[in-house]
TrEMBL record:
The lineage of its organism: Bacteria, Pseudomonadati, Pseudomonadota, Betaproteobacteria, Burkholderiales. It comes from Thiomonas delicata. The chain crosses the membrane at residues 6-26, 33-54, 60-85, 92-111, 131-157, 188-207, 213-232, 239-257, 263-283. GO terms for cellular component: plasma membrane. InterPro entries: ABC_transp_permease. Keywords: Cell membrane, Membrane, Transmembrane, Transmembrane helix. Signal peptide: none annotated. Pfam families: BPD_transp_2. GO terms for molecular function: transmembrane transporter activity. It is found in: Cell membrane. Coiled coil: none annotated. It is a multi-pass membrane protein. This is Putative transport protein (ABC superfamily, membrane). It comes from the Bacteria.
Length: 304
């Protein structure tokens, strides 16, 4: 029972950066823009957050630096895509390649350096419960903030006028423009919000989850976050579920290794990605379901 509680706790921690990045991508895709640069933004934010944490010793400043870097890179994508008319998919791929290369160069002086572990929350009474305490109530504050953020995004999209406008821009930018809404500025803000959350996810990886800098440490999580947004059919609650499911599958490899299961480590490392492929393959069997939930103008060019 104790081992299962630790596995559940590890799944929540491992799923948090995925949930953060996917929630950000969900918002900018709701506005009708696809940003394939999540991997590059997360890597750049990871090294920025790690550098700030090493310099200041403050984890919240590190998260702020990650959010700022991610938001600036997303703004660059917005400038290229929304005002200069470049292809959304090519621009996002270029950002991922750019972020991977630049983060490796910037992080040369930080390779091999470690951060002291930052404290997790201790909730009186709840954290001391036999099973639920270590599994649910002994995490870093960012884990709980991510859950609250998912709820806030759901309420924003479905219970506020601004959320309705954002969804309208994603469904029919021509109609929104005809009604007088600044479509490109709304999409830019959505992109920057998504980039900021990808940045926080990258900083969480390098500062909290594995407090060190390693080249390419996101290990494809940006791409998984993009797939997870589709898997969740652009719904925040399903994003959380999918992120924690992926986190649980990721932790299973370490559980199996600790239990002495005689399976090559390379096969165990493949588990999370195989699970993602299987889920997407199953979803693709019902394209109508995706088409009904997908923003109608997703990935399409809009010129006022």
């Amino acid at each position: 029972m104790h081992e299962f509680a630790l596995l559940l706790a590890s799944a929540l921690s491992a799923g948090t950066p995925l949930a953060l990045a996917s929630l950000g991508l969900l918002v900018n895709e709701k506005s009708g823009v696809v940003n394939l640069g999540a991997e590059g933004m997360m890597l750049m934010a990871a090294i920025a957050g790690f550098a700030v944490a090493v310099t200041t010793g403050n984890q919240w400043l590190a998260f702020g630096a990650g959010a700022a870097v991610g938001s600036l890179l997303a703004a660059l994508v917005g400038l290229l895509v929304l005002w200069l008319g470049t292809n959304q998919y090519a621009t996002g791929l270029a950002l991922s390649l750019f972020g991977a290369g630049l983060s490796a160069f910037v992080g040369l002086d930080y390779v091999g350096r470690n951060l002291p572990p930052f404290g997790h929350v201790h909730i009186p009474l709840l954290s001391d419960l036999p099973f639920a305490g270590p599994a649910l109530f002994s995490h870093h504050p960012m884990v709980y903030l991510t859950v609250l953020l998912a709820l806030a995004i759901h309420l924003f999209l479905h219970r506020t006028r601004a959320g309705l406008v954002l969804r309208a821009v994603g469904e029919s930018p021509q109609s929104a423009h005809a009604l007088g809404y600044p479509v490109r500025r709304i999409r830019l803000l959505a992109l920057m919000f998504g980039g900021a959350l990808c940045g926080v996810a990258g900083a969480y990886l390098s500062v909290i989850y594995t407090p060190m800098w390693v080249q390419g440490m996101t290990a494809g999580r940006g791409w998984i976050a993009l797939a997870l947004t589709t898997f969740a059919t652009w719904r925040p609650g399903r994003v959380l579920l999918g992120a924690y499911l992926f986190g649980g599958v990721t932790m299973l490899q370490f559980y199996f290794q600790g239990a002495g299961v005689q399976v090559p480590s390379q096969l165990l490392s493949m588990l999370p990605y195989v699970a993602t492929i299987v889920v997407l393959a199953l979803m693709s069997r019902n394209p109508v379901w995706i088409r009904v939930n997908m923003p109608a103008s997703l990935g399409k060019v809009f010129r006022p």
